[in-house]
Design brief:
Blueprint: H1 3-31, H2 38-49, E1 56-60, E2 66-70, H3 74-82, H4 87-94, E3 102-106, H5 112-121, E4 126-130, H6 134-146, E5 152-155, E6 158-159, E7 164-171, E8 186-195, H7 197-203, E9 209-214, H8 220-225, H9 228-234, E10 237-241, H10 245-257, E11 260-263, E12 272-277
Parallel strand pairs: 3-4, 3-9, 4-5, 6-8, 9-10
Antiparallel strand pairs: 1-2, 7-8, 10-12, 11-12
Length: 279
């Protein structure tokens, strides 16, 4: 057995043991309605017991694709304790992904949603995955390669209302880094390219876009402001995140003005919304 195979085998056995030991805790986290004490238990007992960075495990998506998650990053811990991450939202948006069509995934992170979109778009379709953080973009690329996915184009740029550059704030948990907010555990700040959806869409030849995901830690409104031409022509289904009325209200005003209505299907996280054209 090669050293790589031996390492992989050990990692799989190690994760299997962790997964089996955690199931009572996971059942309590997901099934017990009272939240009091859960955060304290997680921070002081469970998180320190998990393998340290950059230890990782392979997470299998509903249709068999796998992504590499780190135990102590937010995505990894959410999957460990809830069995998945926003699966209901991605399934819902995938209903609007056309075979052979185009999807814009703004804030693609390490690829959980991009892989599902790519599968639904099929070999002749295309997913544009926007991820400005160089390390996260590298992990996204690795996850695409490990699954043999070739119909995703990574755009290593932030997305907003105008062209230029923007300061990107890197968190110790890279999956929480942001060009909009200063995250907890700030490591460094640096400039990254800033594009708009309409510019990226025009550069791609203005293909028909049927589905559009935005998850950029508070920058969703700016992304939509830079997507007016795409929204007017294609009216794609939009999945987005908004924390509280101060973020959601201006987004809702912008989208209803161009013919959208808001939905929040059963199983969605409270901060996630689906907008569909009412024409």
């Amino acid at each position: 057995m090669s050293s790589n195979s031996a390492s992989k085998s050990f990692r799989e056995r190690h994760h299997g043991l962790i997964w089996s030991l955690l199931w009572p805790v996971r059942a309590w986290f997901t099934g017990f309605p009272v939240n009091r004490g859960k955060g304290l238990l997680f921070r002081n007992v469970i998180l320190p017991a998990l393998p340290p960075e950059p230890a990782s495990f392979a997470y299998r998506l509903p249709h068999g694709e796998t992504v590499d998650l780190r135990y102590r990053e937010d995505l990894g811990t959410l999957v460990l304790f809830h069995g998945g991450y926003e699966d209901r939202e991605i399934v819902e948006l995938c209903k609007y992904v056309l075979d052979g069509g185009t999807v814009f995934d703004v804030g693609a992170n390490i690829g959980l949603s991009a892989l599902e979109f790519a599968r639904n778009a099929g070999p002749s379709g295309k997913v544009f995955a926007f991820e400005p953080h160089p390390d996260t973009a590298a992990r996204l690329r690795a996850n695409l390669e490990r699954n043999g996915v070739t119909n995703v184009e990574i755009v290593q740029s932030a997305v907003g209302a105008e062209l230029g550059t923007i300061t990107f704030n890197e968190s110790a948990d890279a999956t929480l880094s942001s060009a909009t907010l200063v995250p907890r555990n700030l490591v460094r700040s640096f400039d990254v390219p800033l594009t708009t959806v309409d510019k990226a869409w025009a550069d791609a030849g203005k293909p028909v876009v049927s589905a559009f995901k935005i998850d950029v830690e508070g920058g969703e409104l700016a992304v939509l402001q830079g997507a007016s031409e795409l929204l007017a022509r294609d009216h794609p289904a939009i999945l987005l995140e908004a924390w509280g009325a101060d973020q959601l209200d201006p987004i809702h005003q912008l989208l209803t003005a161009v013919g959208y209505e808001r939905r929040q299907p059963a199983g969605f996280e409270p901060r996630n919304y689906l907008y569909l054209a009412n024409t």
